[in-house]
Amino acid sequence: MTTNPDGVAVVEVGPRDGYQGIGPFIPTETKLSFLERLHAAGLTRIEIGSFVSASALPQMRDTPALLAACGRWPALRPQVLVPSERRGRDAAAAGAREIAYVLSVSESHNRNNVRRAPAESAAEYARLLAALPAGTFVRLNLATAFDCPFEGRIGEARVLALLESLVPMRPEAEICLCDTTGRADPAHVAALFAAAQARFPEARSWAFHAHDTYGLGLANVHAAYRGGVRVFDASFAGLGGCPFAPGATGNVATEDVAWMFARMGVPTGLDLDALIPVARDGAAIPGGLPGGRVRDALAAGPQACAAP
Fold first, then answer.
1. C-alpha–C-alpha distance, residues 147 and 142, integer Å
2. pLDDT (tens digit, 9 = 90+) per residue, 2-61?
3. Is residue 120 part of a domain?
4. Which of 70, 176, 242, 305 is an active site residue?
């Protein structure tokens, strides 16, 4: 993650969001190889997996082993996703020191995901915070903050009402608003972040998690950036899609985000030349559903811009 105050931080979520829906199990050593290459391309904060039921998401069953292996890269900040107090405690016991707790604004999505109402998940978040070791970095992911696959567009008031109960629990937590279905548009993104930042000035860090289902991932990232957001999730090769959000495709591609910000002169700390080969190999993972445009555009070479 870049420390330049004028730059942005890109959080690589491909090893979690990108892999979780892939059927054929990706060997642990293959996952570690991708982690090593992503880290070498400048990604220092990577969501390496999630602590979840192995029966529900078998691709994530080796997350504890991956977490243990991350010690070989001292500068890497491995982040893990947890959907409940129990899984958060499991992650902490396994040595996780960067935990992303996820709950949905939409009751339908939250119940489909973790069989709980959002208020119940909020209560679990409070108990987990009390149980975490001192110094644990906490991110709060609000899934379906813009749209729900079951309920449609989510009203701004519902998001703010849930944050009213969550933000005071740990104001220093990083708060990530997630476009779970990819149906958000730039105006919606800008308006929700503006409202949330105005309502909760005590919140120290805001992040945005974009999906590219309708091709608006980069536009939404840009809208959030213009609104003052400086932390962005992305997935190499555009891999991903939520198993509990039918029709959602992958996150906005890491290489696309890196290219856009480079063109804008905004530092990311990423080496695009090193990232593109990793993305090309990621797009070839059996069972994966890649997205993104930059790696193919760059592969076409200068002739892509030749005059007709």
1. 11
2. 334 579 999 999 999 999 989 999 999 999 999 999 999 999 999 999 999 999 899 999
3. yes
4. 242
- Report the predicted TM-score, pTM, of the whole model to 2 decimal places: 0.94
* DSSP secondary structure of 274-288: HHHHHHHHHHTSTT-
- Whether 303 shows a pLDDT value over 60: the answer reads no
Q: What is the pLDDT of residues 174-194, one digit of tens each?
A: 999 999 999 999 999 999 999
Nearest to residue 221, comparing CAs of 248, 185, 194? 185
Within 10 angstroms of residue 47's Cβ, the number of other Cβ atoms is 24
pLDDT of res. 302: 58
Question: Domain residues for 187?
Answer: 9-305
**85-93 vs 118-131: helix axis angle to the nearest 10?**
30
User: How far is 21 from 245, CA to CA, in rounded Å?
Assistant: 11
Q: Is residue 131 part of a domain?
A: yes
The first and second tokens of residue 168, run together, are: 């005071």
Tokens standing for residue 92: 């902490």
The verdict on residue 1 lying in a domain is no
Count of CA atoms in the C-beta half-sphere (13 A) of 181: 21
**Catalytic residue flag (residue 242):** yes
| Sequence letter at residue 258 | A
Structural domain count of the chain? 1
Here the tokens at position 95 are 């040595």
